[in-house]
Write a structure and sequence with these properties.
binds flavin-adenine dinucleotide; 7-stranded antiparallel β-sheet; 32% helix; elongated; FAD/NAD(P)-binding domain; 22 strands; 5-stranded parallel β-sheet; alpha+beta; 13 helices; 400 residues
Amino acid sequence: MKIAVIGGGAAGFMAAITAKETNPKASVTIFEKTDKVLAKVKVSGGGRCNVTNATFSISQLIKSYPRGGRELKKSFNHFFTTDTVNWFENRGVTLKTESDNRMFPSSNSSQTIVDLLLNTAENLAIRLSYKSKINAITASENRINLSINGETLIFDKVIIASGGSPKESGLDWLKKLGYEIVSPVPSLFTFNMPKNPITELMGLSVPNVITSIKGSKLRQTGPLLITHWGMSGPAILKLSAWGAQDLAKQNYNFSVQVNWLSINEEELRSQFSNMTSSRKQMYKHNPLEIPKRLWHFMLNKLEIAEYQIWNELSKKNKNRLINMLLNDEFEVKGKTTFKEEFVSCGGIDLSEINMQTMESKRHQGIYFAGELLNIDGVTGGFNFQAAWTTGYLAGKNSAL
Ligand SMILES: Cc1cc2nc3c(=O)[nH]c(=O)nc-3n(C[C@H](O)[C@H](O)[C@H](O)COP(=O)(O)OP(=O)(O)OC[C@H]3O[C@@H](n4cnc5c(N)ncnc54)[C@H](O)[C@@H]3O)c2cc1C
């Protein structure tokens, strides 16, 4: 049995290792177009590699995938987050969980993961062929031909794990095989607000906000970070992931609304009612759970005087303040990549794949894994989990 794996990333290595462990007699080769493998694993998670997420319920986990969650349910039944933790632990790499559920190697270094995958592949005698770009695939009844650097090689099974492509043209070689492609657009980005005064508060983090895109149903919660170019943090990144396609269509020109307190108007009015009989100065007495700098910024923006006393606040200004706290609106013009940690939304349409085996429905013997598929998760280890799961299933089922 000759198995080719196209792409030396997380999904490709997981697929190759699983194929060889399932069928030790098979000859398994990873073809990598560059002179480096596992490049993204190395730089991932700020050099620490956020391997997976400590979410141990399938119905909960799939909520973190704007694309592919429903379909992944079938795959997670076979290889789940608990399997990822065990897979690494059984091979000597323990993972630790941080307070937000992200899981990293206990060493805090992505090199631990790179070394494990490379050493395991070497011990299993998996061949690594560098600078080997696959330009074309042709499939006939019992064999698959790969065109590599002008040469044609024949395999029994092929696993395609060539990663996300920022442009649709990068997937032309798969389109030629007849596969339906969902046009790729970037996911996981931060919002640019050029010259918006809010950027004066750069570095400020607000612990729990609700963000929404004006004119849509998109809404997310979580911490928000103000940056020198606009806004970032989980409440923004999640919005960018769920809105990836809509926001691309709007050419990244839209309005975002922020509820700085994550409460409703009734709750806010009741919190204010304790203050409105007070003789305290508004600047010095902020009754709300928002940072002092943001409170001062808002009072300034509303031109509320520095010596304004709570019980002398006009009804009009009170309403303006409430509106700003619950429904602050910012114009977004463009996007910025978050710590280079972007993923592609789009890729091979999942209706092409049997999600229990990762085999193509169109061509027997061709399997798919990783970010090349129309699957993407929010930040937190979900993208690697999808790569481990789909890589494992493709490897196992191709080798049977
Ligand atoms: C900076 C950064 C940080 C990240 N951090 C995290 C994180 O901490 N946690 C998380 O869950 N996700 C993270 N992600 C996302 C995650 O890295 C990817 O989703 C994941 O690496 C996808 O794995 P893959 O194997 O599908 O693709 P890739 O890692 O992209 O691997 C595909 C490989 O295929 C090769 N290739 C492509 N075309 C061909 C061809 N025609 N022939 C031969 N070879 C080919 C490529 O050169 C590449 O080596 C991060 C992404 C980035 C960019």
